Amino acid sequence: MALWTVLILSLLIGGMAYEMRIEAGMTSYARKRLKAQVAARGGVEYAKFLLAKSFETSAFEEDDPEKEAFRILAKNLERGIGATGVEVKMGDSQATVDVLPESGRRNVNTLQDEDWEELLDQAGVPEEDWPNLIDGFMDWTDAGDEHRLNGAEEDDAYYKDQGYKPKNAPLDTVDEILLIKGFTPAIVYGGPPADPKGEPLRGIAHLLTTFGDGKVNVNTATRDVLLTLTAGNGKTLTDYEIEDILKFRLGDDGMPNTKDDGFASVQEAIAKTGMDPAFADKISVADRRFVRVTALGENHGVRSGVWAVFEVGNRKVTPIYWREEQMQ
What we know:
The chain is an alpha/beta fold. The protein is built from nine helices and nine strands. Helix content is 36%, strand content 18%. The protein is globular and about 90 Å long.
């Protein structure tokens, strides 16, 4: 009897110890997650401070070496050049921050048919699907109920089944594309193709925005965005021109976040890269009215992310979009 009692007590104590270890682990993880979340939010606040200081860069002391890196970042933001990979320490946590003008993406509301073709091509969408997607988007966003050849308006069976009508107005967010007939999560965000034998889809959301005048900021646009740029009559940027854009915008030192970053004008960008002057009306180098801040907070391997869009102007930094995500 005593042996059984000892065995039962041992099992109970062992079970309690196991539960305590689990609870301690859960508490530890929750604490790390909270610290990572705070770090991400702190990274956004640091970016806001940078943007606020970009209004008054003339007040920086040129001979203060301790503030030199911060001054360079603020001045680059003043010029419409982004800041990437900025590390902000906060105790035992840290945040990695990107501050990039939204004009480095394509404004989905200003895309023409040939822009959509390049965009869908880069995303890996089969060419036979392009007409339905393009016309469907145009019918969703244009005023009135007149059909495009391959489009869909209010009387389409798809919208009747969904229980809503086409917006007949520009999109407010990129996510709204999912409401449009033909656009699937795989097309928008990437994922498996409809045909199991096809190539995985790469998504289009990361190339798009709903902010700005539609001109692409070549000082911040990614290679994938530059590949979608068109100038009419089938003109697109060549791989060599894109390589030169990515190279020359880093200045002579070839490093980001330094004082010689960025093209000073559209004319300089065209001259240094040899791109067709027809692109002059399609690109910009200094637009920073809308800025996207992405901050990844981390604490001992636990990560949390924040991305936000701010409107910058009239000496104000105004938040207009905010999103937080837990990451593994």
